[in-house]
Automatic annotation (TrEMBL):
Region entry Disordered, spans: 1-22
Spans traversing the lipid bilayer: none
Keywords: ATP-binding, Nucleotide-binding
Protein's UniProt name: Sugar ABC transporter ATP-binding protein
InterPro entries, alphabetized: AAA+_ATPase, ABC_carbohydrate_import_ATPase, ABC_transporter-like_ATP-bd, P-loop_NTPase
Keyword Transmembrane helix among UniProt keywords: no
Length: 275
């Protein structure tokens, strides 16, 4: 049985005007009126979204609804044309993936961005390699491969990820193991928010269950998770709230445990509009 955070009002907290006392603590991450156009395509239009620490928010919508674009905006890959990103109640600029990382936002993109020819440990530490102690590290810039392998092993064990040998190239891993490595890599930077773009899309039943267990663990550690999925089973199993995008616009916010499959599906297909 997966534990969820206590129910929270659906939708977004109204921004308080001057002199008003805010009704709740600010969300970890809030998007206010985010718009993005690619040439003739209006990928996002006035999108609102809130994620609190220790909750899983599912981001749903048909193909082309704007889900990945929204994650790219939050993670600094694509700049928004308009709108505000608030982090812990303050308006912030996220101009690059490094900006997002500095805030504590880690992203696992739809294409995973793992390096097939590198091993599991090297992938986990990609871009933040550990150097050997003393002059070998500081002057010769030698990496501490043994230390990184030990830390990789510890991290995988802690998250319950079953990969027997961290020295195998990720190319030989199963799809589920690759996804777990990518999530583990995101977790290694001690983020406050993790954005997952369709982490279970290519996975079988058991692998999906492992990945959903990982999502649970992120929530239990107080991390706010944004989870894109087309699978209502995943959403029902793990999400606290769901936000639906349709043709780049908000089309509904739902408290997942108290909402039926059909209500959410209607919002995705456009049979119902409740934004
Ligand atoms: N770099 C780009 N240049 C031009 N158009 C783009 C670009 N990125 C996305 N789009 C368009 O923006 C719209 C939203 O795309 P996006 O990838 O965000 O959808 P999605 O909801 O993630 O879909 P899917 O479920 O298929 O992954 C689509 O019409 C897409 O073709
Ligand atoms: Mg996508």
């Amino acid at each position: 049985m997966r534990s969820r955070s206590p129910p929270r009002p659906c939708g977004v907290t109204p921004s308080s005007g001057e002199g008003e006392v805010p009704v709740t603590a600010p969300p970890l991450l809030a998007l206010r009126g985010i718009s993005k156009r690619f040439g003739a395509v209006q990928a996002l239009m006035d999108v609102e979204l809130e994620i609190h620490s220790g909750e899983v928010v599912a981001l749903l919508g048909d193909n082309g609804a704007g889900k990945s674009t929204l994650i790219k905006v939050i993670s600094g890959v694509v700049p928004a044309d308009k709108g505000v990103i608030e982090w812990e109640g303050r308006s912030v600029q996220v101009r690059s993936p490094r900006d997002a990382q500095r805030l504590g936002i880690a992203t696992v993109h739809q294409n995973l961005a793992l390096c097939d020819n590198l091993d599991v440990a090297e992938n986990l530490f990609l871009g933040r390699e550990r150097r050997r102690a003393g002059p070998l590290g500081s002057i010769c810039r030698l990496v501490d491969s043994g230390g990184m392998r030990r830390e990789a092993r510890r991290q995988l064990d802690e998250l319950g990820i079953r990969i027997p040998d961290v020295r195998v190239p990720v190319a030989v891993l199963s799809a589920g193991q690759r996804q777990s490595v990518a999530i583990s890599r995101a977790h290694l930077g001690e983020p406050k928010a993790v954005l997952l773009d369709e982490p279970t899309a290519a996975l079988g039943v058991q692998q999906t269950s492992h990945v959903l267990d990982l999502v649970d663990q992120l929530r239990e550690r107080g991390i706010g998770v944004l989870l894109i999925s087309h699978n209502m089973g995943d959403v029902k199993a793990v999400a606290d709230r769901a936000a639906v995008l349709r043709l780049g616009r908000n089309n509904g916010f739902f408290d997942v445990p108290t909402t039926s499959h059909d209500q959410i599906i209607s919002s995705i297909t456009g049979a119902a509009s409740s934004a």
